[in-house]
């Protein structure tokens, strides 16, 4: 598979994008889940004994006070949500990016194309992922009353209704739309520097992904804090919307409250986005290569069949030309699997085989 095939996969390969995206999402969230748990604890307005201090301190306290498996509690919700959410996310991004790039826009608009495609993809992603985020963050909190993902879902639905799963959706979008715009633009910009020929380059994907994640995470941390407040409704803080969440955060922590967990968020996002992009690019490359190999075998079978037909057709045409008293024909050229007949007014019918 050449560079153009890899970088500009056809929109018909939506299954490739969805499969690669699902693997990337699950890998990203599962590998970095303990750091995500620490970030959630650090962003809580009332952290409790399990919060406070740096990332390492929070993780150590969680394990000492609540058991070795506490940092990964609630991971099941992420696995269920991240697969379909990221499948939609990457397939939509690739589809829209290819569509807009095919409009032959000036090159200076490329980064705007990446950002716009990322915005639309985020709307679909968050629609699937938001309920999983609510369940995950409630299980991550200190002294959480929920033991399993299903018990948390049932209790939230019974006591707060379906709205509880989407209470933070507008805040999530307000955070993730600029996050993904910055993320995709930074990633593509990083690729233009570290991987200018846009080939499959694991090192470049990791570096570009980590850089993009760090920049996007740093710029959207205040909204992430508000999202956590809306999702957890913890410690008697009953925020009902994005504006209310902003007020609550300021009341409890002032301006500094909007940057709680900033370090943890950057430390989480850098390897998370690096893992996500490198996993996605790997599966995109591997799956499309396998698809090309399958098509190649089918094409070879077709060429063999066509070759036999060509031999018969060539003999028939040559015999007809000789019978008509024609001059000896010029040598035919074989450049591929396709063939067509071209009638010349000044001579006999010649068989020309060209690339289809």
TrEMBL record:
GO MF annotations in UniProt: ferrous iron transmembrane transporter activity
Compartment(s) of residence: Mitochondrion inner membrane
Main subcellular location of this protein, as a coarse class: mitochondrion
KW Ion transport (keyword) present: yes
GO cellular component, one term: mitochondrial inner membrane
Pfam family, one: Mito_carr
Solcar repeat extents: 12-99, 109-193, 200-286
Alphabetic keyword roster: Ion transport, Iron, Iron transport, Membrane, Mitochondrion, Mitochondrion inner membrane, Transmembrane, Transmembrane helix, Transport
InterPro entries: MCP_dom_sf, MCP_transmembrane
GO biological process: iron import into the mitochondrion
Source domain of life: Eukaryota
Membrane association type: Multi-pass membrane protein
Family: Belongs to the mitochondrial carrier (TC 2.A.29) family.
UniProt protein name: Mitoferrin-1 isoform X1
Organism encoding this protein: Cephus cinctus (Wheat stem sawfly)
Gene designation per UniProt: LOC107263096
């Amino acid at each position: 598979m050449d560079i153009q095939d890899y970088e500009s996969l056809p929109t018909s390969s939506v299954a490739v994008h969805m499969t690669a995206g699902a693997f990337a999402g699950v890998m990203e969230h599962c590998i970095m889940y303990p750091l995500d748990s620490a970030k959630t604890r650090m962003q809580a307005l009332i952290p409790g004994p399990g919060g406070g201090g740096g990332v390492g301190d929070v993780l150590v306290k969680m394990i000492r006070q609540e058991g070795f498996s506490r940092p990964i509690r609630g991971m099941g919700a992420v696995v269920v949500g991240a697969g379909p959410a990221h499948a939609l996310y990457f397939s939509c991004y690739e589809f829209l990016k290819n569509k807009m790039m095919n409009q032959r826009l000036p090159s200076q608009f490329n980064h705007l194309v990446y950002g716009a495609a990322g915005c639309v993809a985020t709307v679909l992603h968050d629609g699937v992922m938001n309920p999983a985020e609510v369940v995950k963050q409630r299980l991550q909190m200190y002294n959480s009353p929920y033991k399993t993902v299903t018990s948390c879902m049932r209790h939230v639905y019974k006591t707060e209704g379906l709205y509880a799963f989407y209470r933070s959706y507008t805040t999530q979008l307000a955070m993730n739309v600029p996050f993904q715009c910055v993320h995709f633009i930074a990633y593509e910009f990083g690729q233009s520097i570290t991987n200018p020929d846009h080939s499959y380059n694991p090192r470049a994907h990791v570096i570009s992904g980590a850089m993009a994640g760090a920049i996007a995470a740093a710029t959207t941390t205040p909204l992430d804090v508000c999202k956590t407040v809306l999702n957890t409704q913890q410690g008697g803080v009953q925020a009902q919307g994005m504006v209310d969440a902003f007020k609550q955060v300021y009341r409890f922590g002032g301006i500094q409250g909007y940057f709680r967990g900033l370090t943890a968020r950057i430390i989480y996002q850098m390897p998370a986005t690096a893992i996500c992009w490198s996993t996605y690019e790997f599966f995109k490359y591997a799956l499309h290569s396998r698809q090309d190999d399958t098509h190649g075998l089918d094409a070879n079978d077709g060429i063999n069949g066509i070759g036999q037909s060509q031999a018969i057709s060539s003999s028939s045409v040559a015999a007809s030309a000789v019978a008509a008293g024609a001059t000896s024909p010029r040598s035919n050229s074989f450049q591929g699997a396709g063939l067509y007949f071209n009638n010349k007014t000044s001579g006999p019918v010649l068989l020309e085989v060209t690339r289809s």
